[in-house]
Write a structure and sequence with these properties.
The structure holds two protein chains of two kinds.
Chain A (H helix, E strand, L loop, with lengths): L15 H6 L4 H11 L3 H17 L10 H28 L7 E4 L15 H15 L4 H10 L10 E6 L3 E5 L9 E7 L3 E7 L8 E9 L4 E6 L6 E5 L2 H4 L2 E10 L12 E4 L3
Antiparallel strand pairs in A: 1-2, 3-4, 4-5, 5-8, 6-7, 6-9, 9-10
Chain B lengths: L2 H15 L3 H23 L2 H18 L10 H20 L4 H4 L31 H19 L3 H13 L3 H8 L3 H21 L6
The chains are: A alpha+beta, B mainly alpha.
């Protein structure tokens, strides 16, 4: 029995190392967990063992591919946006006041490679709310509180400024085929602001990714980046220069990591001209 | 892990718990190499490895508020989350018995090179992550010392421990894989972890 272990009728000493490695079987795990709930000595020993096991996990370091950073951050932003959307829907059911303004984010170029257009949580929250106003309404003051509470640095270091812009309208981007269950809209706010919002995105097949495109008047297809693999919500801001000249939006299924040009027919396609 | 690093990580994780996405990005920049390296070690394929890292950091995001700095370092916590995500992925993807699909160790304890070959040259690392080159080298050097310590384990103990940790096998599954009694496997893991602690201490990587 371990020195300091006060629970003398349950012997788990020999199970602690296996538990720390993840090798304990279900009944053994239950015994260990029951024991450490009341035995500090064994719980400390288990913490030490888990720290040792975690050193095993640090024995192989491999630099991830550059695009993985964007995917990781997209996933987080998508989750935040989805949570805000759910909150907004809930609030709008209670307070039917029209929304008229949104804070404008200071124009500041991200220095990250533009493989994906990761949407900072704040802007994502605001634009999803803009979409929601087409069918529902949200009280302005509550939105401002949310904005103030979140006016810390966003994912790429940008900050918000207080001048409001109008969320004028949204354009539907019809979906089909494998994207049939998803819904896509292009939120339009002033001349320079276009945000693509896609909801209920199905997980793409292994090795593939959904990729969004802006198509200009000359028919050129400019990548807007790939959608995060496991996120059911995607929010992509078009660069201001593109926002004014985009003619149509499309989404195609490409290889994971994206393609330079679309290689498959679009499964979402809609006009972007106001 | 230097004291200053752990303090930084704790502060970053506290910020993540408050919803700070930039703090999460910083944690990824600091430890993404560890997470991806471990994920690849377990699942062996880049696409699965990437998914594992995404899932792991999503869990970090969701669970940041429950981290207890008195019980573990942030790195231990992140590595444990990543390892568990990777084992889950491995179980989902396997179409063969686990031990055969995991090219980690031969039954004599000698290690098979993981898919992708040797670990990355530290001089070429860091390009994709915003890190101080000195930090990149330090992390690789530490990994090398850990591997060297593990290599000094008696082969039978090393095999059992690696099958458990990197293969996600239980006592009985390891026993089945190696054709040995469960009791023998339990003993090897018990003594192996004790021995590993001593070797890691000697290598100067525990509690650093």
């Amino acid at each position: 029995m371990r020195r300091g272990c006060v629970v003398s009728d349950v012997h788990v000493d020999d199970l602690l190392p296996a538990y720390a490695l993840g090798a304990a079987m279900e009944d053994e795990r239950a015994r260990v967990e029951a024991h450490i709930a009341t035995c500090d000595a064994c719980r400390s020993e288990l913490d030490e063992l888990q720290s040792d096991a975690a050193l095993l996990g640090q024995s192989w370091v491999s630099e991830p591919p550059p695009h993985l950073r964007g995917l990781v951050l997209d996933g987080i932003a998508g989750e935040v946006a989805q949570r805000h959307h759910a909150t907004a829907r809930q609030e709008s059911d209670e307070r039917p006041t029209p929304l008229r303004s949104l804070p404008r984010r200071a124009a500041r170029r991200s220095r990250r490679p533009r493989r994906t257009f990761a949407m900072p949580a704040l802007a994502a929250a605001c634009l999803l709310l803009a979409v929601a106003t087409v069918v529902q309404s949200i009280q302005v003051s509550q939105l401002r509180e949310q904005v103030d509470a979140e006016s810390q640095a966003t994912a790429d270091g940008g900050t918000t400024v207080d001048s409001p812009i109008l969320a004028d309208s949204t354009l539907p981007i019809p979906t089909s085929g494998a994207l049939d269950s998803a819904s896509a809209q292009l939120a339009v706010a002033g001349e320079e602001r276009r945000v693509l919002v896609v909801e209920n995105v199905p997980q793409p097949p292994a090795g593939k990714a959904w990729q969004a495109w802006a198509i200009d008047a000359a028919g050129e297809k400019i990548s807007l980046g790939t959608l995060a693999r496991r996120s059911p919500v995607a929010v992509i801001t078009l660069p201001p220069a593109l926002a004014g000249s985009v003619d149509a939006i499309a989404i195609t299924l490409e290889q994971a990591g994206g393609s330079d040009q679309p290689t498959t027919p679009p499964l979402a396609y809609g006009s972007a001209s106001v | 892990m230097r004291i200053a690093d752990q303090a930084n990580d704790v502060a970053l994780l506290a910020a993540v718990a408050e919803g700070d996405q930039a703090a999460l990005a910083s944690l990824y920049d600091r430890h993404g190499g560890l997470a991806y390296g471990l994920a690849m070690r377990i699942v062996g394929e880049p696409e699965l490895g990437e998914e594992v890292v995404q899932e792991a950091f999503l869990k970090v995001w969701r669970r940041a508020g429950s981290f207890d700095p008195d019980r573990a370092s942030v790195v231990t916590w992140l590595v444990t989350i990543t390892r568990n995500c990777a084992i889950d992925s491995l179980r989902r993807e396997k179409s063969q018995p686990l031990a055969r699909s995991v090219p980690l160790v031969r039954t004599d304890g000698s290690e098979v090179a993981m898919s992708g070959g040797e670990p990355d040259d530290p001089r070429s690392d860091g390009a994709s992550l915003a890190r101080d080159p000195a930090d990149v080298v330090a992390v690789h050097e530490r990994a090398r010392r850990i591997r060297a310590a593990v290599d000094r384990l008696p082969p039978a103990q090393r095999t059992a421990i690696q099958l458990a940790y990197f293969g996600g096998l239980s006592h009985s599954e390891i026993a089945g894989t190696l054709g040995e009694p469960v009791g023998t496997v339990k003993t090897r893991i018990f003594h192996g972890m004790r021995k590993l602690r001593d070797l890691l201490d000697e290598a100067g990587v525990r509690g650093v």
